[in-house]
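Order emerges. One example.
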Amino acid sequence: MAELLAGANVTTAARVVNRRQILMALVASTAGWSLDLFDLFLLLFVAPTIGALFFPTNVPTLSLAGVYAAFATSCVVRPFGSIVFGNYADKFGRKKALFAAMSGVGVITALMGALPTVKQIGVGATVVFVLMRLLQGLFVGGVTASTHTIGTETVPPSWRGWVSGVITGAGGGLGALLASSVFYLMSSVFPGPAFEQWGWRCMFFSGLIAAIFALFIFYNLNESPFFVEMQKNKKAVSKAPIKVVFSPQYRSIALINILVVLGAASMYYLTSGYMPTFLGIINKLPKPVAAKALIWGSIVATLSPIVVGQLSEMYGRRKAFIGTGILGFAVFGFLGYPHLAGVTGIPAITFYAAILILVGNAAYAPVLIFLNERFPTAIRATGTAVCWNFGFAIGGLMPMLVSASSRQVADIPAHLNWFLLAVTALMVVGILAAPETKGKFE
């Protein structure tokens, strides 16, 4: 990193970026996104526990479906958050939008740890839990408007594919790693029934880390050089960037973008997102053992997108997407969830789970830069965030659909695999309908 930064000063007619600014933009984008995914992963890691406390039922798959429905509600409202915060980021700057959105996510997540359960106040607990998830989703949708633009707008052009993998992939992997570590710590400190009492609450309380980091960003991060240049040149900024994104000029671009994101996001949610539940109810791993397996999966999830992101810089975005699609068909076809369900032994389970997580995370490594290159600076925050969050909103429904379509727990592995093959095909179809975008950054 030091060698790369040594020659990293970037200068244009109106844009000067120093090494410190590049480093801070990388830290803010990557850590900002990882902490928000950390907050989201907390729910996925304790889905069975939350299901029993807030969505009690005699049918285990329906209880799980309830939890994933709550997860999906936050995904569904994320596009609205991206509209609000994307508009703010395009008008007033990426830095301010990032601070406001991250603070909101951290505070809401921590408050979820203080909620009463169904046993304490009845169905009202379920209602309040879902409402909190809705609020969390609004703020998470806003985070993408800034984390997914300020990093790529700050680094040198030849870094953009790599940075796309670092932010989305490494950021996501680090978020999962942090959540896995907290899960392991809390399940060890609060074993057995104690976890249902205090362990899950303490996990949510740790969401305050995001709010604290937001303060660090506010005092140390510089504004995006592209945004500063736009202001200096007094370029017109639309009063409603969202209208421009879905205007005749950009409508087809936005729709194809959403299709690509939908495929990649679904692969992510059906691998990294569903894996904590799968290891618990299918492979029957105790919580601390599952947490250790997920930590290894998180390490893989951190590294693989960086490699694919750099490959997209070397060979183009379309080839990177198509390559990960082909890899997905091969892995899901021969080493998918039905195979993992039949594996015995913790090392073998950890290995095959990591393979599935690797593919699911590698798939969306070039998504961020692909979206950035499809929109100009004046609407980039809104366009990127809206397409990202619409795709992830639909993708976030997939775990719920898998659980709801499974009449019994034994049906889950096969259903997961069929869903994975279908969404991989969607991603490939979407990217085949799009042009190569590498080098097109206005």
Notes: The longest helix spans residues 60-92. Confidence is low (pLDDT under 50) at residues 1-14. The chain has one domain: 16-432.
